[in-house]
Amino acid sequence: MFPAQFEYHRPGSIDEALALLGEYGDDAKLLAGGHSLIPSMKLRLLEPKHLIDLGNIASLKGVRVEGDTVAVGALTTHYGVESSPEAKGALPLLCEVAGQIADPQVRNRGTMGGSLVNADPAADWPATAIALDAAFICKSDAGERKVPASEWFQGLFTTALKEGEILCGLRFEKLPERTAAIYLKLQHPASRFAVVGVSAAVTTDSAGKCVQARIGITGVGTHAARAAKTERLLEGRVLDPANIAVAAALADEGFDAGSDMHFSESDRRELCRAYVERALLRVLERTNAGQFQS
Amino acid sequence: MKNKVSITVNGVERSAEVEPRMLLVHFLREQLHLTGTHVGCDTTQCGACTVRMNEQAVKSCTVFAVQADGANITTVEGLAGGEGLHPIQEAFREHHGLQCGFCTPGMMMAASQLLDRYPEPTLEQIKHQLDGNICRCTGYHSIIKAVQSAAEKIKARKQAQGAR
User: Fold this and answer.
1) How many A-B residue pairs are in contact by the CB < 8 A criterion?
2) Which of A206, B60, B75, B101 could covalently link to B25 via disulfide, CB atoms 3.0 to 4.6 Å apart?
3) CB-based burial of residue A199 (10 Å sphere; 0-12 exposed, 13-18 middle, 19+ buried)?
4) Does B87 contact A at CB distance below 8 Å?
5) What is the ipTM of this complex?
6) Is a pLDDT exceeding 80 seen at residue A168?
């Protein structure tokens, strides 16, 4: 279908965008990559009267390393992250995630910020944002605020972003030494969304004991969340297949998994546990091969 | 209510007044009569609408024409650049990389980005970089062969040009 009519605005700065957002309020939607918004508009699930296109605001794009922090502008495309030498050097997990999102054409347009604000329960970035406890930098007329990932994802397509606010950037802390990580995804073959997506970063000492485990999972509940019980069972124990199996068996606890046209709740939970186990076994492989994030 | 846009398409600047809701694919097909770019689905999945926008392969059904104001677009009509067939087109013909041909313009535009980014692509890279394009006829085998052949043709042309 054709989208319903709307007025199109192309601000050149964040302040201009905020002013437009203030003027049009509920009648406006912010446009980033448009690869969730425009399909919704074509199906007339959404009919915003005003679109505020953030795509021309250069200060919202780019990957910068500032000390121990990797700062990603909200309007950085998935390909922009995938191909970023800065990201590859400081936090290669980000490149690994980016390269698995959707397809090349979508990666050229879709943005990290757009994905994290849309908060699709099967989107890829949320799993890593929550595993690494990224900081969400939001700007409004009232100023700037930083929201931790643990508070960002609140429900189905629901985030902590307030009315009149624009998500401007994400900040990821570099991972400790001897951290191996992976993003392992079971892709739906047609949509390429994550049936289950596991972002796992595990730090071990030279004796192979797990010092820190961070596991974020998407696709299983109404929003991405940490596999907290699995993390606790891993920490303090040697990272080996036996301990991984025990820890992964609890991976789906606390997730509000449901049944849908693709999978029953119990199948979904089983896939969650299986993919957490597989992800951790791959992390163990990378640990043994010395393939660390820094 | 209409917005003025000025978009360079296949090297020629084209200006028009369009409704903001006009998709780039419809602008190309209906305003500019460049019907090589196809509309194959309603869900941003099939890739038959793929064009190069500022060098990047994008699904033109999921971009508004107003977003493309000031951009450089290459459609399948502009692939060859006016000198016979592009190596990608030659390869698709020689290796039977199409049956009905509906997906083919999108496949070739996606392949053109693929080969720009990965001039000597592995099989895995070809498959991964064509993820955004669906074909219902061929089973993809001949498409992959066409892309592999195109890579070799482009390499040979570059070497020949270097030698001159």
Assistant:
1) 80
2) B60
3) buried
4) no
5) 0.97
6) yes
